[in-house]
Amino acid sequence: MLRTVTARAENWPLATPFRISRGVKTAADVVHVEIREWEVSGVGESVPYPRYAETTDSVRAQIAAIAPALAAGLSRRDLQEAMGPGAARNAVDCALWDLEAKQAGMPVSETLGAGEPPALASAMTVSLDKPEAMGRAAQALATRAPVIKVKVGTQDAEACIRAVRAAAPDAVLIVDPNESWDIALLQRLQPSLAELRVALVEQPLPADDDAALAGLEPLVPLCADESCHTADDLETLRGRYQVVNIKLDKTGGLTGALVLLSEARRQGFGIMSGCMICTSLSVAPAFHIGRFADFVDLDGPLWLKQDRPGGVALRDGWLQPPSRSLWGGACLQAMEHESL
Questions:
Q1: Which DSSP category does 104 fall into?
Q2: Active site annotation includes 247
Q3: Among residues 113, 147, 165, which one ends one of the domains?
Q4: 250 among known catalytic residues
Q5: Is 284 in contact with 108 (CB distance < 8 Å)?
Q6: What is the pTM (predicted TM-score) of this model?
Q7: How many domains does the chain have?
């Protein structure tokens, strides 16, 4: 088997800064992976996350370490044991999905026994700012975003949520403190969250403080993000969270995300499909999770100054899936090659 594996770091500037309680982003730093076998190549993308001590250099080093095994024919299924979950495995796993689809002449959607991914009602994010500025940002989104995610911290959290609700009275609201709250603040805000018709609160406490949620009966469902990486985490989340956020950079790719989706549903959790700030190459495989999710948050590429060709588009409030030419589509050339 003749395979080559390449991984490169890319920097994609944002149109506007993206602020959360943890800091500010002005660009998406991603790792692009290509796995080529003869004349067919599969591609994938991941977003190294400093929260998990990942950088583009560390992710590329992990991929370089597994490259000889991939060149020798390591399968996508064997990859799950050969690499731990995280951004490095995500990029490789998704590249292998893309390669398999092109070699088989069958798009990923058919491999999964489903039709083409539909347009999704994805959340659009209002990043952290002063309440007045967040209200203006929400007002600009109100006519084209049926779902709005509100990034908050500890300062003026309620005022920020109220400003967004006033500007977008009909939107479904998701509040995301990004681990910045403590249990006292979460408890204090419960009545206001209910009054403001917040649909979901995402990862209010630091993941290490999850034990404080035991016994809490929240007025608004809680969603585990940083607290949920793979299906192995679900056991400790029961009784603390009602929803889990499935991100491919945490599960280590679409393969792990599908396992988490199935097991979370079996255990009675609601599902959110999320992403990092990324290009549409990251979001394309996530659509195969988003189509089954209760909440969708795949607006990462919409923050970029310029996305990859064939990327997602927002139409009448619905996020249109990327072109199959970007990722996960069948390749006629591959079918011809296989027939030789």
A1: H
A2: yes
A3: 113
A4: no
A5: no
A6: 0.94
A7: 2
